[in-house]
Design a protein that fits this description.
alpha+beta; eight-stranded mixed beta sheet; ATP Synthase, domain 1; single chain
Length: 151
């Protein structure tokens, strides 16, 4: 029996897979593996990597906070922000990281300091995940829908 997975933000459905084998969630209390028939859980998410596995294929996502609703037959990730590892623009993230580091080093107003720290954290997470995918790209397949398009 597979488990359905949805990754949703306020703007859109980022990912939907009706028959995943396993989901690894970056819960606030630590990384949580979810298999079909998992006990119901509602918990918060931290910045981290969400992994959806189906057979030999997997999709990875950078998750920037939110909540996850785990049911025996479905996992719904309600993310503050979420990006597929295959859509992360490495050059843009490097530029964002450099800009945030520069702002923090130069010293900015307190309200801008928090925004810069969050931007730095987001860029570093996205780059870490994207580099993992690049390093493993020859051995990991993506989950693709019936039309040949990525989810």
């Amino acid at each position: 029996m597979p488990i359905a997975v949805e990754v949703v933000t306020q703007e859109k459905v980022v990912f939907s897979e009706p028959e995943a084998d396993m989901v690894i969630v970056p819960a606030a209390e630590g990384e949580m593996g979810v298999l079909p028939r998992h006990a119901p859980v509602l918990t918060t998410l931290t910045y981290g990597e969400l992994i959806v596995r189906k057979g030999r294929a997997e999709e990875r996502f950078a998750i920037y906070g939110g909540v996850v609703d785990v049911r025996p037959d479905k996992v719904v990730v309600l993310a503050d922000l979420a990006e597929s590892s295959y859509e992360i623009d490495e050059a843009a993230m490097e530029a964002a990281r450099a800009n945030a580091q520069k702002m923090l080093q130069e010293g900015v107003a307190p309200e801008e300091n928090r925004a810069a720290a969050l931007a730095l954290r987001r860029a570093e997470l996205a780059l870490k995940i994207q580099r993992k995918v690049q390093a493993r790209s020859s051995s990991v397949l993506r989950i693709i829908d019936d039309t040949g398009e990525s989810d």
